[in-house]
Amino acid sequence: GGARFGIDVSSAGLAAERRTADDVADIGKVLSGAEEMLREGQHQLLADANFAFHRAVAQATRNPFYVRTLEMLPNFIGRNQLDLVVSSQNSSEAHLWRIHREHVAIFEAIEAADGPRARSEMQRHILAARDVVLNRQSLLETVELDARNT
After folding, report:
1. In the structure, what pLDDT confidence band is assigned to residue 113 with cuts at 50, 70 and 90?
2. What is the DSSP string of the chain?
3. Residue 127: is its pLDDT beyond 70?
4. pLDDT score recorded for residue 86
5. Tens digit of pLDDT for each residue in 49-107?
6. Cα maximum dimension of the chain
7. Nearest 5 degrees, angle CA 51-CA 56-CA 58?
8. Which of 21, 10, 109 lies closest to 61, judged by CA?
9. Which residues neighbour 76 within 8 Å (Cβ) at sequence distance 6 or greater?
10. How far apart, in Å, are the Cα atoms of 3 and each of 73, 76, 110?
11. What is d(CA 46, CA 48) in angstroms, rounded to the nearest whole number?
12. Spatial contact of 1 and 77, defined as CB atoms under 8 Å apart
C-alpha cells in the first residue's frame, strides 16, 4: 500500500491548496451521506462512501493523475482492504464513526485551505486504517493457530 499511501497524503495537501467551492461542496456531500448511513446503520454502503470521499479529495487536486491513480489502485484502503475494514460483521460502530471523524478532520483542513494540516490528518487516517487491517490479520492468524493446536 506504499504507493497509495503517498498519493492520498499528497492529494490531501494539493486539494487544500487548489480546491474550488464546488469541490468543497462535493466532499461535504459525500460526508453527510456517510453520516446518514452511519446513523441508519447501513454499514454495507460505507465502503463505497469511503472510496467516494478519497476520490472527491483527489478530484479537488485539479490534477487528473490523482483521480486516475486512485481508480487504478483502490486496493490499499479502497476495495478489498477497505471492505475488510468497514464490513459490518467485523467493525464496531465506534470504529466506523472514528473513520468518519477522521474524514471530517481531513475535510475541514481542505476547506480551510491548510495544506500541511490536510496532509497530516490524511497521514494519521491512513496509518490508523492500516493498523486496523494489520491487527485484524494478526488476530486472524492467532485464531487459526489456536484452532490448529486444539
Report:
1. very high
2. -HHHHHHHHHHHHHHHHH--HHHHHHHHHHHHHHHHHHHHT-GGGHHHHHHHHHHHHHHHTT-HHHHHHHHH-TTTTSHHHHHHHH-GGG--HHHHHHHHHHHHHHHHHHHTT-HHHHHHHHHHHHHHHHHHHHHHHHHHHHHHHHHHH-
3. yes
4. 52
5. 988 999 999 999 999 999 988 888 755 544 445 555 555 445 688 888 999 999 999 99
6. 60
7. 95
8. 10
9. 1, 3, 4, 5, 8, 126
10. 8, 9, 21
11. 5
12. yes
Q: Phi and psi (nearest 5°) for 58? A: -60, -40
Q: Who contacts 144 (Cβ-Cβ below 8 Å, separation ≥6)?
A: none
Torsion of CA 40, 47, 50, 92, to 10 degrees: 60
As a whole number, the mean pLDDT across the chain is 84
- Whether the CB-CB separation of 113 and 16 falls below 8 Å is answered with yes
- DSSP letters, 38-62, are HHHT-GGGHHHHHHHHHHHHHHHTT
Type of residue numbered 66: Y
Residue 110 pLDDT exceeds 70: yes
